Amino acid sequence: MKDGKFITLGIETSCDETAAAVVADGRDLLSNIISTQIDIHTAYGGVVPEIASRKHLEDINRCIQAALDEAKVSMDQVDLIGVTYGPGLIGALVIGVAAAKALTLATGKPLIGVNHMHGHISSNYLTYSKLEPPFLSLVVSGGHTNIVYVKDYNDYEVLGGTRDDAIGEAYDKVARVIGLGYPGGPKIDGAAREGDPDAIQFKRVYLEKGSYDFSFSGIKTQVLNYVNSETQAGREVNINDVAAGFQEACTEVITEKIIDAAKELKENRIVVAGGVAANSRLREMLAGKCDAMGIELFLPDKSLCTDNAAMIACAAHYEYKLGREDDLKLDAYANLDF
Amino acid sequence: MYVLGIETTGPVGSVAVMNEKGQVVSRKTSEKMSHLRELTSMTEEIFREMGIKASNLGLITVSIGPGSFTGIRIGVTTARTLAQALKIPCKGVSSLEIFREKTIMGNTNYTGKGAAIIYNARRGQVYGAVYGPRSLEILPPGPYMLEDVLDAVSSQEDREDFIFYGDGVDAYADRLEGLALSEEDDRYPTAAMVARLGRKRFDEEGDDGYENLLPDYMRIAEAEQKLRDGTLQRMQEEKKKRYEGN
Ligand SMILES: [Zn+2]
User: Fold this and answer.
1) Is A331 within 8 Å of A97 (Cβ atoms)?
2) 3-state DSSP call for residue A66?
């Protein structure tokens, strides 16, 4: 406890960011340390798991120390340790979990393993201090595209997910095809701003009627075919137009599906989460549609969209308050359902 | 002073706590590659059995490799974080060198013979080391072809006086015929060996400092190798060509 507040230390190492953060009473962000490896992996055109694991080990203890120092909290004042235990790269996850368990062994503080995706949704609690479940959530990231009904802090019902590539994955692959490189999300977002979204029409894939599932592998192939046929015909490909057309098609499908879900469930609040929640066109289109429909839209602070440990600390806080606690047998899981 | 030893470089991991008299209580994992799940809970069990707390520890020792990359990282991360949280020193030791005690007279595990240590690194490769009967370093710890280690042993006059240790003994059994192999119980590294060598090294050299405690993989990541030697660039260019349909 510090100043009468319950202190949670969060740890996150599921992909290519080593992160630690301190949150008071679940919502009050005292520190949020993120050591990103993006520059290292850029040379390889994507995240290399072995290199990510090596880097996490080198950075994790420094991040934990920095998070405590910046929050002006001592380890003694920490009441709870929260750590991402899946889903993610297994070699990366084990670093955070091993560190968290060692902290618990050393100090006796309680331990909570947090589902990374619950963490992403929880980033909204840090942005909107009064936001509480239930609400409808759209989770869009490098590994996920989900429509989720959040009934409580620890109760999630998945209404739909991707049947092939996640949205962020599709962005990365298309960015590679049109030569924009890694990371695909921000690169395509930037190029699309210079392009005409109506210049090239890519087919929108909605799947069967009433389904909240997604499929993005088809549009990736469409982009590839388009680029190939234009190149073979000797025409110059306007990368910005391709990026804008691709982004528009994806964004339209996502926006339409989440709005449909809100209508069906009669939910008037949509909470967006995940790295792709930082995408400017998605934010803009969702805002427009929600406004027209009288739906309240929650977008996490851009700094909390990408992987961070503050969201993990927040999720851990609520799970603990609702009565859950893990023991020292906690393990890491590359594939962990919602 | 109580010393914690951590060994997670092979399929079976172990932890040990050694008291001032050199007496050891240890546990090993019940399943292969379950280091993450079992390591800290086994340590807690040992604390209970010995009637001590984490705060009674005075030194954390850990084997830093070579061995399983993921295993090494789980052990080293645990050691680093314990040292950080308990504000105590830590010491990393080589998973090959810990076998050296078997060649040193007066040690509990003294065999009177030399030690050749081989960990399987696949395709005829090993992480290995060779120590003579009186602890003499004949081949320093490093990545080798199995032949290099065998040559180092056979070039010795008393070549019958070397015992082979490590999981390479199992992996390369067909190529070790006629050589002295350790009993299965003595073949693999243990946390007790780590604690003993770690304690000795700490007395000689002092604290590593948790921030400087790092794995000794003995090999750069495969992707990094490909980046350095140009393979990665070549692969990316070929892929690009395929995508562009030329
Ligand atoms: Zn994420």
Assistant:
1) yes
2) helix
A57/B215 Cβ within 8 A? yes
Cα A141 to ligand 1 centroid, rounded to whole Å: 6
Structure tokens given for B150: 């065998």
Residue A153: which residues within 8 A CB-CB, separation 6 or more?
A: A122, A133, A315, A318, A319, A321, A322
| Contact state of B81 with A60 under an 8 Å Cβ cutoff | yes
Residue B245, pLDDT above cutoff 60: no
d(CA B243, CA A129): 47
CB A176 within 8 A of CB B235: no
Distance CA B49, CA A1 (A): 31
HSE-CB of A181 using CA atoms within 13 angstroms: 7
Q: How many helices (H) and strands (E) does chain B have?
A: 7, 10
Per-residue pLDDT of A231-258, as tens digits, reads: 999 999 999 999 999 999 999 999 999 9
Q: Do B36 and A62 touch (CB under 8 A)?
A: no
Binning pLDDT at 50, 70 and 90, where does residue B246 land? Answer: very low
DSSP-derived letter for residue A204 is: P
Going by pLDDT thresholds of 50, 70 and 90, the confidence category of residue B109 is confident
pLDDT above 70 as % of chain A: 100
Distance, CA of A176 to CA of B110 (rounded, Å)? 59
Q: State in Å: Cα A35 to ligand 1 middle.
A: 14
Cα of B220 to nearest chain A Cα, Å: 9
Residue A300 Cα to ligand 1 middle (Å): 13
- Asked if the Cβ–Cβ distance from B78 to A328 is below 8 Å, we say no
Inter-chain touch B78–A75, beta carbons under 8 Å: no
Distance between B183 CA and the closest CA of chain A, angstroms:
32
Sorted by sequence, the CB contacts under 8 Å of residue B246 that are 6+ apart come out as none
- Measured in angstroms, how far is the CA atom of residue A48 from the centroid of ligand 1? 16
Backbone angles phi, psi at B101, to 5 degrees: -60, -25
pLDDT of residue B242: 67
Closest by Cα among B140, B89, B94 to B116:
B140
Distance CA A150, CA A87 (A): 18
Average pLDDT of chain A to the nearest whole number: 96
Angle between helices A49-71 and B69-86 (to 10 degrees): 10
Helices (H), chain A: 38-42, 49-71, 90-107, 116-127, 167-177, 184-193, 217-232, 239-265, 280-293, 310-321
Q: Does B69 touch chain A (CB under 8 A)?
A: yes
Whole-complex ipTM: 0.94
Q: Number of Cβ pairs closer than 8 Å across A and B?
A: 116
Q: Return the top range by mean pLDDT from A55-59, A182-186, B228-232.
A: A55-59
Give the list of residues 6+ apart from residue B48 with CB closer than 8 angstroms, or none. none
The residues in B 31-50 lying below 8 A from A, measured between CB atoms, are: 34, 36-41, 43-44
